[in-house]
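Key result, reporting period 2: structure in, sequence out.
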């Protein structure tokens, strides 16, 4: 089983280690620049991209305002189509539901479509503890699983691996999970893809239970939608007898007309394609066609708490395109593992602390994993103002567990700025002592002044200057 993110260090420590890996930085730079250049080209083809982006944001906001209504409509539609809906308040409940459903089939193996929701709740590990083996079928997820690794990118989980590393993983680990890698395997991409195809084909044809997530769930019809590039999802969604889909409650869209907007936004923003190769949709069960049993597990796991935050809730608009990762200068250098979450990069820096809270050192550090350059907001297809949420979460971190000295300094500043007379006295005192202010602060303040210049203090405040000027004019 692959490792998890539990117990990882705070972002500054993890990033410091990652940036020292020259091979990792090379892999990340090459991959992210390739994807973002492709995205820019296909986005520039559309003269209505700004309107599409605004429409996507508006649809998501409408859903979030009336989420209870759309979720109940989705449940009714899925049930009417022959599916069964389960509600999971947290990761533990979701894992228990899925484990019980798999056990009820009598099988101990499942094939999986790439799913961030199941990674978020640690489903593979929970199934493993119950004696059930989960086989990842997405090529990148397969690489991560075989390498006892964790994903480092939303779109390309194995972005931190190069071809030689992948060849070695296939050569040494494939046999433990099924069909072994062929003798003399090279690092040619076609050879690696063929080795994965042969390895996975046996699982597709023999495994009777599949687990998926979904990019979208259409409330009006109960239809679930998965966008992918390889066809592994199509195999998992059609061949097994039982299909279990774990879906975050924010993934619902009201109608097929709304879905049309996102089918334009997502491929261009994620893979830089006008249209993704495979768009799979399924609605309940159909006798003689596809799975005979369908279960939908609707996952909360911190989403309702996020919804209650009027600033932070915009993170729930996210359609998992990864455009913000590919443009982010911090992610490009630190990589995904430094974020200690299945959601890396700028979106992870605002989504993870809200889903998990800011109680741990790692989660409290994530809102600071950004230069606030704003590039992530510019490329987001649903206009999530990530810098705004980052600053908002930094306030929460300081309020909740900020340094005592920092809290005291902020309290003192608030007391001074809260009264104009106190502010005037402080400004006059600062002006009089301006020659005594050091260029470098001692103690904890040294880290701040090592990278910043202390602003020059003027000899007098603007108020004093204004008062003197108008007094002289009045005397004339």
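The corresponding designed sequence is given below.
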């Amino acid at each position: 089983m692959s490792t998890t993110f539990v117990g990882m260090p705070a972002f500054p420590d993890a990033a410091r280690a990652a940036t020292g890996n020259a091979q990792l930085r090379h892999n990340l730079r090459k991959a992210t620049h390739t994807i973002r250049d492709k995205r820019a080209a296909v986005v520039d083809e559309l003269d209505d991209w700004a309107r599409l982006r605004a429409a996507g944001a508006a649809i998501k906001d409408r859903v979030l305002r009336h989420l209870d209504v759309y979720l109940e409509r989705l449940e009714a539609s899925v049930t009417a189509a022959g599916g069964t809906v389960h509600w999971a308040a947290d990761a533990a409940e979701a894992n228990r539901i899925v484990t019980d459903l798999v056990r009820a089939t009598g099988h101990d193996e499942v094939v999986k479509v790439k799913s961030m929701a199941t990674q978020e709740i640690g489903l593979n590990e929970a199934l493993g503890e119950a004696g059930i083996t989960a086989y990842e079928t997405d090529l990148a997820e397969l690489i991560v699983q075989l390498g006892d690794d964790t994903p480092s990118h939303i779109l390309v989980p194995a972005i931190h691996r190069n071809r030689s590393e992948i060849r070695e993983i296939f050569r040494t680990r494939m046999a433990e999970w099924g069909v072994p890698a062929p003798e003399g395997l090279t690092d040619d991409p076609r050879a690696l893809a063929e080795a994965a195809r042969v390895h996975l084909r046996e699982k597709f044809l023999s495994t009777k239970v599949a687990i998926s997530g979904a990019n979208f769930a259409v409330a009006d019809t109960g239809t679930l939608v998965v966008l992918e590039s390889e066809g592994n999802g199509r195999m998992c969604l059609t061949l097994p007898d039982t299909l279990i889909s774990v879906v975050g409650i924010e993934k619902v869209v009201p109608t097929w007309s709304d879905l049309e907007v996102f089918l334009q936004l997502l491929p261009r923003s994620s893979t830089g394609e006008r249209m993704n190769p495979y768009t799979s949709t399924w609605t309940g069960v159909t006798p003689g066609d596809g799975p005979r049993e369908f279960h939908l597990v609707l996952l909360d796991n911190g989403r309702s708490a996020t919804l209650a935050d009027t600033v932070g809730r915009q993170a729930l608009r996210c359609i998992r395109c990864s455009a913000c990762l590919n443009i982010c200068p911090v992610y490009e250098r630190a990589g995904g593992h430094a974020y200690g979450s299945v959601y890396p990069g700028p979106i992870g820096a605002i989504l993870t602390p809200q889903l998990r809270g800011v109680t741990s050192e790692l989660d409290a550090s994530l809102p600071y994993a950004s230069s606030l350059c704003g590039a992530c907001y510019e490329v987001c297809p649903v206009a999530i103002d990530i810098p705004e949420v980052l600053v908002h979460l930094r306030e929460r971190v300081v309020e909740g567990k900020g340094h005592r000295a920092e809290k005291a300094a902020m309290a003192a500043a608030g007391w001074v700025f809260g009264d104009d007379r106190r502010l005037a006295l402080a400004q006059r005192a600062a002006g009089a002592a301006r020659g005594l202010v050091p260029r470098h602060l001692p103690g904890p303040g040294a880290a701040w002044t090592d990278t910043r210049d202390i602003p020059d203090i003027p000899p007098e405040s603007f108020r004093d200057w204004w008062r003197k000027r108008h007094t002289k004019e009045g005397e004339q």
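The beta strands are 84-88, 109-112, 133-136, 209-212, 216-218, 223-228, 242-248, 252-253, 278-283, 293-299. Residues 22-44 form the longest helix (23 residues). This case is discussed further under Risks and Mitigation.
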